[in-house]
Amino acid sequence: MKYSSSSSSSSFHYFLRERCLNKGRLSPFFMSFVLVTVIFVPFIFYSINHLNPISKHALDQKLPLFKPHPSNSFRGYDNGILKKCDLFKGHWVPDPHGSRYTNSSCTSIPDSKNCFRHGRSDRDFLNWRWKPDKCVLPRFDPKTFLEFVKGKKLGFVGDSVARNHVESLLCLLSKVETPIDQYKDSEDRNRIWYFPNHDFTLINLWTKFLVHDEERMINGSLSGTFNIYLNKIDEGWSKELPILDYVIISDAHWFFRQIYLHNSTGVVACVYCNSPNVTDYGVGFALKLALRSALTHINNCKNCKAKVTLVRTFSPAHFEDGGWNTGGRCNRTSPLSESEINMSGPEWELRSLQMEEIEKARKKGGKLRKRFGVLDVTRAMMMRPDGHPGEFWGNKWMKGYNDCVHWCLPGPIDVWNDFFMAVLIREAS
Ligand SMILES: *[C@@H]1O[C@H](CO)[C@@H](O)[C@H](O)[C@H]1NC(C)=O
Ligand SMILES: *[C@@H]1O[C@H](CO)[C@@H](O)[C@H](O)[C@H]1NC(C)=O
Ligand SMILES: *[C@@H]1O[C@H](CO)[C@@H](O)[C@H](O)[C@H]1NC(C)=O
Ligand SMILES: *[C@@H]1O[C@H](CO)[C@@H](O)[C@H](O)[C@H]1NC(C)=O
Ligand SMILES: *[C@@H]1O[C@H](CO)[C@@H](O)[C@H](O)[C@H]1NC(C)=O
Ligand SMILES: *[C@@H]1O[C@H](CO)[C@@H](O)[C@H](O)[C@H]1NC(C)=O
Fold first, then answer.
1. Domain boundaries, the chain
2. Lowest mean pLDDT among 1-5, 337-341, 376-380
3. In the record, which residues are listed under signal peptide (predicted)?
4. Burial environment of residue 97 by CB neighbours within 10 A (0 to 12, 13 to 18, 19 or more)
5. Claim: this prediction has a pTM higher than 0.90
6. Does the beta carbon of 275 lie inside 6 Å of ligand 4?
7. Could you identify the atom of ligand 5 that is nearest to the CA of residue 333?
8. What number of CA atoms fall less than 13 Å from residue 97's CA on the CB side?
């Protein structure tokens, strides 16, 4: 058995230092390869179904509403109220205003997320707004955001769902400024956008596991089984860490496959393996330890600028009546209520493991003057089985398969940026 390294972003690293321009092109073969490996391989083993309602205590919806107060705030973001309020505990309420952009006002929506273009006809899923139980979540305000991040570099570290978040951010910002496409690697995984009017740099750093990985080769071909190394951070993003002012980190969907976890002494555990001398501790265990390694690395990084790191929690998929490759679909057209989501299912468990790691990093970071915040999107998104492309993702190679992992643009994923702005201002000021 041989191993091949799958970390390949040294040219990207070079770019960040040298700022040379490079236009990436994608060959059709490569595209289909990417679609199969990046989009669908994460669904393998992924057959979580949590749409069976459970009865939970009904929420008192008559709590007082707080309005952002203009004083003691960054342009209307009242830290006093936002600090006391759990932004992530709430429900979706009807909002006749609908989405803040369309597929014509935002020209950067990737084809696979442009659901209306591919025939999605229901629009009600746009007419909902997230309402935290004890306050009002201010809507993302692109002007204020760009002023806040003036002169800064923001990095998103994660997989294709992290990229989905970036795409939503680009659409929301497009009302104020369209960035210059400064760098794109040949696989369109690592990417840099520059907003000249605000000297703001947005960087996408693609990583599967946050830590270093090698895909196992069996008889000369890639096996889909990965070795991951908990004592070695994925250099693709960690090399760029020193230049970033703000970091948003996430991981999840690549962990739903066969993985062998290594520390400096050797194999310590596995996921979905069937080996006599290695224990399968499950997806959560691997996810937790990889996140711990990444956050420890950030805390220990002496030459890093980043004072604020945000972790985005698990983004649930919504395959119903089957898995990704057995006819599973997600064709609902409205959100679920809080009583209809399963809080004892695996999604919430993964989110809770992530929260524990964030708390540990936060305790340690306090002494090192580093701050850790959380975009705890899991609960809100568990209620949005209607937000995925489903069959409307325009894929020619994989007709009949539904994408119930990524999110339509515009769509409920835009709330991630409402959360992001509120938390960034809270943590950074
Ligand atoms: C936007 O969506 C409409 C359907 O609502 C579709 O006809 C059109 O082609 C889309 N436009 C773009 C630029 O994708
Ligand atoms: C690799 O190839 C050898 C010889 O062709 C074969 O005996 C063996 O079963 C193969 N191993 C796997 C895991 O496919
Ligand atoms: C590696 O993992 C094993 C088993 O969990 C543990 O006993 C050992 O202390 C670990 N080594 C290091 C360097 O973390
Ligand atoms: C299991 O143990 C055997 C014997 O000690 C060793 O040869 C083998 O490499 C081990 N397998 C794994 C997956 O570590
Ligand atoms: C979803 O698809 C199934 C099977 O085609 C159909 O029975 C059901 O009515 C659809 N649901 C919605 C909300 O369209
Ligand atoms: C919630 O999820 C757990 C764990 O998967 C499962 O055992 C339980 O049956 C689910 N409850 C409902 C009501 O679906």
1. 2-49+64-428
2. 1-5
3. none
4. exposed
5. no
6. yes
7. 13
8. 8
